[in-house]
Amino acid sequence: MEISTVKDAFDHVAKRQKLSSSKSQEVVDQVGYEIEQALTKIKAINDPVSPIDLKSILAELELKLNAIGPLHRLEGLQKERNINLSKYAKLLEKSFNPDISKAYRNVDFDFHIVNQIVASHFYQQGLFDLGDCLINEAGEPEAIAIRSHFLEMYQILEALKVKNLEPALNWIIANREKLNQNGSTLELKLHRLQFVEIIQKGTKADALSYARTHLAPFASLHTNEFQKLVVCIIWVGKLDRCPHAELMSPTHWEEFTEEITQQFCSLVGLSYQSPLSVAIAAGVEGLPTLLKLANVMAAKRQEWQAMKQLPVPVELGKEFQFHSVFVCPVSRDQGSEENPPMLMPCLHVLCKQSIMKLSKSSSRTFKCPYCPTEASAAQCRQLYF
């Protein structure tokens, strides 16, 4: 079922809920109004001990409340709300099958690698005690080497939270050559953050001294950035009117924290995103297709677990595409070392096995399936992705 159908159903329930709430409030207001009117009449009685007037007022109030029928109306509104919510819950259950085990395929996992991936995830999230516990219980002592890398990274990140740049600076200086090879400007960004802190809390003299010592070395390669920072010195004490006020934005700290995390992971050969979280996110995105496939195969009494290749593509976002993959347009097989993609003279590409089937032998010519050009297997060249 399309997500738009679920959204329309939700909008309908929300609309009915709002209308029901409005009607309920109207009933309560009517009851309150009649009670207030009765109280006003009681207070206006000249003889406060006269039972006749008091009884007549209460009797009139009772008649009006019976005419309103608050309990009956409120119960009806509550029943209507429950019916609408019950229908929506059934729609959700029908649309989103909670039994995700249908999409599970029996896979022989290498538990040694799985343990390392999970432990690495815990360390990358800063959950060092949990990672240590897993390593000890799973008997994976070699995975402890990953811990030291992330521990150093979190010491830097914790210092950045209190705007302490010294640990970050020490790490950048120690890895300056590698960072420069990556085209990183982390050192300049770090000094920019420190300079902005000085012009916000210090004096013009302090800012000028810092600029001469730490920013001047970057002036030749980052002239525009350097000029903006130096201009800010003039506006010390009135930075709200500075033409480069965007440099004071706290988002620069967030961006620096994210970039230093990326560079740190890159230099130690680790993924910026946890492989476990990426695998789970990709699985969640592909789950609807897999569940639908499992249901269709079950209806046809076919076992999809035994299939070597899925009969339908599982579309994932670009964030999950880490390398190029070629799928032969003829056989629908994915290219591999045994069956590599081959470029034909007409510049169309097929997998090697498809070409061999079309040519029937390496010397026989065949027509390209997509154009009338003839070619032979010997004329085709392997492509490398």
From TrEMBL:
ZnF RING-Gid-type span: 328-371
Its GO CC terms?
cytoplasm; GID complex; nucleus
Please give the superkingdom of this protein's source: Eukaryota
Give the keywords, sorted. Cytoplasm, Metal-binding, Zinc, Zinc-finger
**Cited Gene3D superfamilies:** Zinc/RING finger domain, C3HC4 (zinc finger)
UniProt GO BP: proteasome-mediated ubiquitin-dependent protein catabolic process
List residues of the RING-Gid-type domain.
Answer: 328-371
Location within or outside the cell:
Cytoplasm
Which terms does the record give in the GO molecular function aspect? Answer: ubiquitin protein ligase activity; zinc ion binding
Instruction: Pinpoint the CTLH domain residues.
Output: 149-206
Listed Pfam families: CTLH, zf-RING_UBOX
Q: Does the keyword Zinc apply?
A: yes
InterPro entries named among the record's database cross-references? CRA_dom (IPR013144), CTLH/CRA (IPR024964), CTLH_C (IPR006595), Fyv10_fam (IPR045098), LisH (IPR006594), Rmd5_dRing (IPR037683), ZF_RING_GID (IPR044063), Znf-RING_euk (IPR027370)
Query: Which residue stretches, if any, does this entry annotate as coiled coil?
Result: none
Q: Is Cell membrane a UniProt keyword of this protein?
A: no
| Name of this chain's protein | Protein RMD5 homolog A-like
Organism, by scientific name, is Durio zibethinus
Per the UniProt record, the lineage of the source organism begins with: Eukaryota, Viridiplantae, Streptophyta, Embryophyta, Tracheophyta
